[in-house]
Amino acid sequence: MTAHRSHFPPEFVWGTATASFQIEGATDADGRGPSIWDAFARVPGAIADGATGEPADDHYRRFRDDVALMADLGVTAYRFSVAWPRIQPDGTGPTNAAGMAFYRELSETLLAHGITPWATLYHWDLPQSLEDRDGWLERDTAQRFGEYAGLVADGLGDVVDHWITLNEPWCSSFLGYGSGVHAPGRQVGARSAQAAHHLLLGHGLGVQALRAARPRATVGLTLNLYSVQPASQSPADLDAARRIDGLSNRFFLEPVLTGAYPQDVLADLGQTRWFEEVSADTAVIAAPLDFLGINYYSRHVVADPPLGATVLGGPAGPAYPGSETVQMVDTGAPRTFMGWPIHPEGMVDVLQMAHALRPDLPLYITENGSAYPDVVVDGAVEDEDRRRYLEQHVLACSAALQQGLPLRGYFAWSLMDNFEWAWGYSRRFGLVHVDYDTQQRTVKRSGRWFASFLGGSLADAASPATPLAPTTEQE
Ligand code: IFM
């Protein structure tokens, strides 16, 4: 089966996505303050290759060329994130005009190329000054985020209509404060669930601020969701699936879409009493949204661990609170270079999951993509694995539409190779290859395939005819 754009409604949004810290570089430019990722990158051993946010893709200086490249790919939307420390270097106080000017120019350049800007307000680069005051474990950080959201809405609201408050609060809380593999690298146990609550409260306050400043704005939140299956129908494995689905999906989906945290997850985490004390916040957290963004990469097949089993090791990093009670099962499915099993059908599962809770809510895939060890040979990157992954997931979008799911758009992660957090520059997700020494951009075969699919001028004549392998997984 081959994917064709004509199988999608004409208004379906096709985009690429990036995030500020992963591509911008210029971490000292124009009054930007330090973020938790600048600090974390200085901790010996925290980042796989000892990398920092410099130079990344030097996008801060090269954004015009990067936007032109996107236009040539044929995308209709671009999801970027605003770096909070560029807008408020210390996390509080007035707008740093030079920081705001960068995002204004970026947005105007996008619009001039016919590309709709989608701005994410928080993609993990918390100002370090706020972390010095306990970061997302501190309730006041949510208030500060609401204030920051209002400043950005005031500064960009006339050029940006589409807003995402947070990207993947699961990562910010459970990886940032639970396992500690992400900045700020703290390990506070089950209290990391409290960081998640403050992030969600910040989301709700951010929605209020955006709506106050720009009543006609289109506002959403992006969650990373996993398709979860039990390894068997045994009660123990079914309960393992309940636990990990609870931590990964329901703990975020339910308060936002239904106004209540899942009680079983709070009980698993031993957090029931603390969450009772803050239960009034759920009215803010469940503020009506215009859409939900879903980042989908992979699925979990889980079992109840036999005594002494190794759980969530390797690519997933050390356990975060609650996850140590679950064993990830290797089904033999092909994996990407991140070690993540490839399972395109799971994209439909996660769309159904959100749809079941709020049938009226438009849904977008705000990230989907794959890492592979690319090589440049004679000026070309023949990343057939990534091209295939992309086409399989575009076809999954088509299957979702056929099932009547309200999917309205798809953003490929990522426009170009970038700083992959704790993996540094050792993992490449881009449709465009970046040589970090020269900053040379090379459109990979996957990027040319996307351009062919979209009708962009970078189309590769060979791509549309490439047959898709029929199956993705052997189990
Ligand atoms: O690079 C990240 C991105 O920042 C958030 N979602 C997952 C991507 C791949 O790991």
Give the strand order, joined by hyphens, for the main sheet.
Answer: 1-2-3-4-5-7-10-11
Number of DSSP helical runs: 16
Biggest sheet layout: 8 strands, parallel, barrel
Calculate the mean pLDDT score and round it. Answer: 94
Bound molecules: 5-hydroxymethyl-3,4-dihydroxypiperidine
The radius of gyration computed from the alpha-carbon positions, rounded to a whole number of angstroms, is: 21 Å
Summarize the amount of helix as a percent range: 25-40%
Distance between the termini: 21 Å
CATH architecture: Alpha-Beta Barrel
Envelope shape: globular
State the order of secondary-structure elements, H for helix, E for strand: EHHHEHHEHHEHHEEHHHHEEEHEHEEEH
CATH class: Alpha Beta
Our count of domains comes out at 1
What proportion strand? 5-15%
The CATH topology: TIM Barrel
Low-confidence stretches: 310-316, 464-475
Helix/strand class: alpha/beta
- Let me know the number of strands: 13
Query: What would CATH call the homologous superfamily?
Result: Glycosidases
Walk me through the structure.
There is one protein chain. The protein is α/β, with parallel strands linked by helices. It has a single domain (5-226, 245-297, 336-474), classed as TIM Barrel. Helix content is 38%, strand content 13%. The protein has helices at residues 20-23, 36-41, 59-73, 84-87, 97-112, 128-131, 140-156, 169-179, 192-213, 235-258, 263-269, 272-277, 282-285, 345-357, 384-402, 445-454; strands spanning 13-17, 77-81, 116-122, 162-167, 218-224, 227-230, 291-295, 299-303, 327-328, 363-367, 407-413, 432-434, 441-443. An eight-stranded parallel beta barrel has the order 1-2-3-4-5-7-10-11, surrounded by six helices. Strands 6-8-9 form a three-stranded mixed beta sheet. Strand 10 (363-367), helix 15 (384-402) and strand 11 form a beta-alpha-beta unit. Helix 7 runs parallel beside helix 9, helix 8 runs antiparallel to helix 9 (192-213) and helix 15 packs parallel to helix 16. The model is unreliable at 310-316 and 464-475 (pLDDT under 50). The structure holds 5-hydroxymethyl-3,4-dihydroxypiperidine (IFM). 5-hydroxymethyl-3,4-dihydroxypiperidine binds at residues 19, 22, 168, 295, 367, 413, 420, 429.
